[in-house]
Amino acid sequence: MKRDICWNKYDAKEEKKVYDFADDYKTFITECKTEREACRFAVNVAKENGFKDIDEYIKSGKKLKAGDKVYAVNRGKALVLFVVGSEPVENGMNILGAHIDSPRIDLKQNPIYEDEGLALLETHYYGGIKKYQWVATPLALHGVVALKSGEVKDIVVGEDPADPVVGISDLLIHLAAEQMEKKAAKVVEGEDLNILVGSRPVSGNKEEKELVKANILAILKDKYGIEEEDFVSAEIEAVPAGAARDYGLDRSMIIGYGHDDRVCAYPSLRAICDVKKPKRTLACILVDKEEIGSVGATGMQSRFFENMVAELMDRTGEFSELSLRRAMTNSYMLSSDVSSAFDPNYAAASEKKNVAYFGKGLVFLKYTGSRGKSGSNDANAEYIAKLRKIMDDNKISFQTGELGKVDLGGGGTIAYILANYGMEVIDLGVPVQNMHAPYEVISKADLYETYKGYMAFLKEA
Ligand code: MN
Ligand code: MN
After folding, report:
1. What predicted TM-score, i.e. pTM, was given to this entire model?
2. Of 43, 120, 370, 434, which sits 20 to 30 A from 63 (CA to CA)?
3. What's the mean pLDDT in 63-75?
4. Closest-lying ligand to the alpha carbon of 264?
5. 439 alpha carbon to ligand 1 midpoint, in Å?
């Protein structure tokens, strides 16, 4: 079975659309490196496109009617957008779901300390990373500090070219004889991912100890009005510093932090904003905590989405416990997440007939999981047939794939959680190289086909 390269089918006009969409996406991943930043960005885009906060309808008692657009934010870290269809919600929704958290390095609650004249921050990494990839590279700090007063301070340091950056050191090769003998998992250990933030003592005060730490605390106090104690109620994430960039001499790819899974979140957001007057109700879920198991109040396992569908149906006037269950069961979902792209440097990790390739379009994964599909949502053949037809009718380039060779490893997504409601769900997304590395790579053509595929699914499923 041969699948064509997307690039061959584009005329000059469409090729421009591919590159323009990629430019918009680069802005998104450059500006949104945390779930909170992505959530805020999505709310702004939604508002610009006529979406209203569902709370306005709940508080005023106003009804929702076909064509109305609403969104609901879950604690600033996740959100869901709805476009009310002309059919009853009970008939089922067409749902796009992607996650907006990415692997990174979080600060501990008591992070700051001084060791021999250097000020450092203790960290605990988030998600599956090869720890050795995160050293000797410039990092930025993004996040919030919640004060006892109720005020929440936003912090971003390291993105403006005039900003300083921070980072984690690595052992010089000259002294690494022992380190080089270690297994990759142990070359750099989790507890050693300490971020260097200062080396200069505060001036004056010669009697006291820890003057370098004192200087950093003074800077934090001066710049943000925060005390050392305030880190207890902070969420600060260290992420690779700098902008996403064109990759390849032909500019056909993008390198950047957090393609997983913002490369699916962004076209999902754009698609739900661009579809007009749908028959079935549309939903777009952008969710947090996927990288650590979809747990917590802002992860997919939380009841948030179900509760918001209940609120939506209450406002369309069709809520009942039974109608809600029917709406969930009758829904179609695309669980959008990245997959591994074939990499000639690591060809042995994939089985060539069932792996995704750059430039061949969005990739459907019937199943994910590990050790014999364990933990996977194994999509139904009938549902795949329906989607295949939609993609072919709309000339969307798609391919099928698996994460890699059988029993080599594996992975999971949010698919199985929605499938628990009895709805049809399949994994699909954009192929990625270097997944979970500080800088990941995607193809612009695959991103564009994914956006077009979402549009076709929302309109026709
Ligand atoms: Mn993912
Ligand atoms: Mn991931």
Report:
1. 0.97
2. 43
3. 98
4. 1
5. 14
